[in-house]
């Protein structure tokens, strides 16, 4: 099965708290979802180069322009409400014409995380509550 199909299926199957969200940045539609890496199927984790762990989170970003997947410059950071955090390192995944960007980050305790992203030089901020799993 194709990686993009698996990632889309994963996004659709996650709980409402981790469901995919979308924000418009100019002519771009930026779709994003953050979730616990333990939700990844083993074959998806292997194919994507991700670590499947209850102590890690995954951020999945895809960008559309004119309804079609497009490459983008994606960077950012994740931090807790106290301001402690880290830069995100994104891995570009390509499957045919579909492009997505994946990053992993540690989950230390149940908390609201603040994501500050740049997509093609435009800012996208959101927060989401995530928690580690045993």
Structure write-up:
This protein is mainly beta. It has helices spanning 3-13, 42-48; strands spanning 21-25, 28-36, 56-65, 68-69, 74-80, 85-88, 91-95, 98-106, 111-119, 122-130. The strands form two sheets. Strands 1, 2, 3, 4, 7 and 8 form a six-stranded antiparallel sheet that branches. Mean pLDDT is 88; it is low at 8-18.
Mean pLDDT: 88
| Low-pLDDT segments, ≥5 res | 8-18
> Between the first and last Cα atoms, what is the distance in angstroms?
29 Å
Rg computed from alpha carbons, rounded to a whole number of angstroms: 14 Å
Shape: globular
Q: What count of helical segments does DSSP give?
A: 2
Strand content: over 45%
Helix content estimate: 10-25%
Q: What's the β-strand tally?
A: 10
Characterize the main sheet: 6 strands, antiparallel
Give, in order, the helices and strands: HEEHEEEEEEEE
Class from secondary-structure proportions = mainly beta
List keywords for this structure.
13% helix; globular; mainly beta; 51% strand; four-stranded antiparallel beta sheet
Structure in a nutshell:
With 134 residues, the protein is mainly β.
Could you outline the blueprint of secondary structure elements for this entry?
Layout lengths: L2 H11 L7 E5 L2 E9 L5 H7 L7 E10 L2 E2 L4 E7 L4 E4 L2 E5 L2 E9 L4 E9 L2 E9 L4
